[in-house]
Write the structure tokens for this entry.
Amino acid sequence: MTRKVLIVDDSKLARMAAIKALISLHPDWTRLEAADAATALELVQRETPDVALVDFNMPGMDGLTLAAEVRQLDPKVRVAVISANHQVEVVRRAHAAGAAFLPKPLTAEALREFLGSTPGSPQGVP
Amino acid sequence: MTDQTMVSLSPLELDALTELVNLGVGNAAVGLREMVKEEVLLSVPKVAILTRQQAIENLGEGAVKRLVAVHQNFDGDIRGRALLMFPEAQSMELVRAVVGGDLSLDDLIELEQEALAETGNILLNGCLSTLANSFGRTLRVSLPEVVHGDGSEFFNLTSWPRADDGVLFIYINFALRRGDIQGYLAMLLDLPSLVTLKELLASYIVSIGGATTTSATNAS
């Protein structure tokens, strides 16, 4: 089933890397990109994506806050916070926001695992 | 504000460098967090090419005059200096966070150099290895050295022929909540290294944008 994935990162290069991983798994899925939280929230409302991949360390609203707001706007969106900064506090806050945590740089394997986990189950293993 | 003679990075090259620094410091913060047993907060990195004078002035804007820096020189395809800096007044607080709070002042003073050097080593080496791994190059990194002073002293690299050479100035704030410790990381490169860095970034971007392979970088 074709799905819609929103990729949020202030770095264009990081978005390119995420898109590449996604294309290698699901070349037919629709990809949406946002460079900041405001655009991301607008896209969530307008395009109702199935999945959002959100960078943690962004100027303005950070990825953890954005993840929580996305989940509030549309609880059906499966969200993963992505960062190289996997301090336990950051991972814990991602889970508390109802999001999974994936290490950066994002690999196709990690993305596959995230996308493959059963929808509806608690997102991200604690 | 850049001089005509300076190397300039394209927006995507700057983006790639910022992202690599972000990855490097993010990884390194995990190691530091294990040492201090509390969350290490990091800002979004800023990357700019400045003259050395501008870099010193930038540093001087941060109100605090006396700083402690841990620096490590690196050498290889690119060479320069990476620094971790914070106000001298916060030095002891950082040492206390690193070694634990139960030590006497004498013990803390005795451990100061070592604790600062180790903190610097974790953050700076972490950042440099991410850069080196992502570029597929080797960087030789010197042992950390602790120095007290201000920006003009820290940024004085003998290998730089002229004070108006372009330097790459990367800064990122880090903070520990307990004790309000705040510092920043900077990295300085000489002009020939900037030319090489531009080439390395261009290849890195191609490797990310390339269509087939799935993992172009080494995370740790």
User: Anything to note?
Assistant: Chain A touches chain B through 28 residues (CB under 8 Å). Strands of chain A lie at 4-8, 30-34, 51-55, 78-83, 100-103.
